[in-house]
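request received
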Amino acid sequence: MMIDKFLDIIFIPNGRCPICKRVIFFSDEFICHQCKSSLDMVGDEKCKKCGKEIDDGKNYCSGCITYNYNYQEGFALYNYEGSIKTIIHNIKFSNCPELAVYMGKVLGKSMKNCSWLEELDYIIPIPLHENRFKTRGYNQSEKISNGIINEFTQMDKALDIKLCINTLIRQKDTPHQLKLSKEERFSNVKNAFKVTNKDVINEKTILLVDDVYTTGATIDECSAKLLDNGALKVYFAVLASGKTNQL
Amino acid sequence: MKRLPLFFFISGLLAIISYNIGINLILACVVFAIAFCICKGDSYKLIVIYCSIIFIFIFCRMDNISNITSSFDLNKNEVQYQGRVVSFPIYKENKVQFVMEVKGAKKEKVQGFINNNTHLLTYGDMIEFTAQATIPNSRRNPGGFDYRQYLRTKKIYTVMYINNDSLVIQNNSQNIISKNISALRNKLTDFIDVNFTERENQFLRALIIGEKGNDSEVINNFNKLGISHILSVSGLHVGFIYLFATTICRILKLNKKIQIYIIGISLYTYCFIVGFSDSVIRASLMLFLLLLANITNKKYDTLNVLCFLALCFILHNPYVIYSVGFQLSYSAVLSITVFYPYLNNKISFNTKYLEYFKSIILITISVQIGTIPLVIYHFNNISIFSLITNLLIVPAAGFIVIVFLCVFCVSTLLNISLLPFLVPVKLSINFILSVSENLIKIPYSYSILSPMPFYIVSFYYLLVFICFGYLYHYRLRNRKVIIVVTIINISIVIILSIIPKPLTVTYLDVGQGDSALIQFPSGQNMLIDGGGQYNYSVGDEIIINTLVHKNIRKLDLVVCTHSHDDHKLGILEIIGKVKIDSIIINCLEEEGYTDLISLANEFNIPVYKNNQVKVNISKSILLDFVYPNSNTLYIDENNSSVITKMSYNDISFLFMGDLENKGEKNLIENKKDISSVFLKIGHHGSKTSTGKEFLSTVNPVYGIISVGKDNRYNHPNQEVLELLDNKGVNYFRTDQVGAIEINTNGEKVKIKTYTD
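response:
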């Protein structure tokens, strides 16, 4: 429609940096240069399993030592501290799907060096329950996944990885994990997910995508469900992960 | 590619600037063609094409509008016209002013005035009258108000002074929409008239319906204190209307389409009531687009919306860019968009009340940061208290608007009187008025500033943007930009201080009277006469404005050639308002000087007779008060005028005051060298002055006649003009060309006249 096109020219999704709130004048980026460089990236010393930053020189974080997660390995771009919290809050609660796609692109770009990238067949975003999808209007993980796939197809060696939605669905409308303890989080998501179509994921390697990884309860539960239904391996990628000392 | 509206608006702005500084359209097209070739990628090329189309369109439109003049016969007196009132008339004592559509050669908007009005005009009246059409005055003096340009921003090119007796109101023709809205407006004004006292009334009218010009005292105070924005109806009021309408829609649970209609109609009604001022249209359209963004689930972007609206305005009439309201309204919102969220994000408090005060303070600061150069340019002052006054007054004004409109709506809908609810409104109005009246009395509560030169303004904005951390996206490149701009600025300052300043002589257009301002290259300033009229303060309106505009803080010397009011009154009016070192007059004992001398004594300004002092300006500039000298007898006021001769190498000036033939004879007999390049013709070109012999002795190349339009003395005299023509003197008349500014370096002269 004409009006729609016109509105798209005027109303742009990246008019303002979500972190410092400055106007972005002439850039296609969603975050201003200053704020982007202020984001706390996960350093070189990280857990070989879940990808969290660790600072005690060991190979695995305390969480991965005490509990054997179902997934293979994971990748996190930022430490869940400081400005990234604002961004993730915006992605989830301020109706910014384009920001999620943008962050997905950033995530996809930095995943270039992951050794397991070429094994992947499908990307499955952590699903939202129907009710929450309705109120939010979109699934932020799906938008991040869109960004990742967009980046993967533009790589030097283009990867053929497809997005797979509606195969994994959330059947329980669980409350937010935010204020729960570690044990409560695991029990909260127990049996919250369901696989609708076994054939699609049979013998396939899957990348789960979410916004934040803290205890790993959600991702672990999804991985368990996928592996139970015939998936070969499950990896995950998140925008940010809480450091080991948090929870 | 993002921010297309910003690009489009900038290209529109560039078109206006290029037109003004005289850049050829072909040259601009060449630049665009080069840009088109340099740009990589189709989307960029497309943007260049769009921008060039907008550029060319606005450039042509500027050209088009600047050539439009009145379509009426300007030479004929008292012609019969028919017209329709298309604005809400503003009554001021017994005068009234309004805009009308008049049928002439074509239908044209005309600004109409009636002095000694006895009629009651309303919006939509068909009227028949006789009047003389004139072109509005353009700027006649440095720093003066350009009424022609002001009206041009409203697409008005003609002014008519209507003869009150000839006016006949035929009937009222309005369509149903405007009929209802003007009825609503009448109810509103009646409501204000009935319930409020005179003083409150004027303030409320300005605040609620944007009717200004009733009480210039209040508006002047508000301007000086930097709070005039609350009197310009805009965001606050429209925001309230919007909130009101959306709340009703939400309560009634209306669907989105109906919501758009209801809110659109209520905003349009309000725009109509306040007379479609630039800022209120801007605010309404911004809110309407906000509504559209919410409904279509898109992310509202203030900067783009602002640019888009500004673009629409300049596409409609590029001259709107010169409107003060337009400039301040857009730049204020722009500064809020660019600076406020960043500041707000940086500083945070935990308590709600502090957050509220913080947001008001920060919004005020943001607006001030962005608009200071403009405010100084237009109002010539800034207030140190503006922050405090804003803190006190903005909430009070908001309270008044909200309570008043609520009470008005409820009492008209239910037809009941809600007088007790108006008491807090009255209290707030009196609070605001007394705050502004008391603050203005505090010394140094506001300071007068001259407009900043362009390079300082650009440097200021650059600094502000750096302080706010903009210009950071591509760090290296921007650092280069900053360094280059800084170097350019510093070098401009250095170059300006190295280049020798010229001697500038400005013959001001003070109507019937004399006044000339001389700026010496060494930085001193001298004023010869101050003009003077009985119904109009030449000192305040013309001389002070000129001094502020030219950034002159001190007059080293003021010469009053003789004690007649058309030379002296202006000087009386400026004493105490600008620092004066000394005053020179032609006779200390003369009775006409008692007021001047006593006023000068009050301010400790020494007064000398012209031959008591010897003035040294510089080696190359000679300043001599050649007449009257110690041995000439006092004849009369005119014939004893102080005659000033000033020469700067080859170029010399002679200021004659009102010297007549008798005095001229004495002057010649004095045997002083009075030959000059520029001659201020004596006595406004009266036939009693400028004799043949005298003119041959002076032998001027240029003549200046300082004279009022259609004056009752019939100055300048036809014989004098013929004499000047015969002698081959090239003369300028202030009634024809406005002020005349002459710049000279001692060899060459540059003459600039203020009108046309």
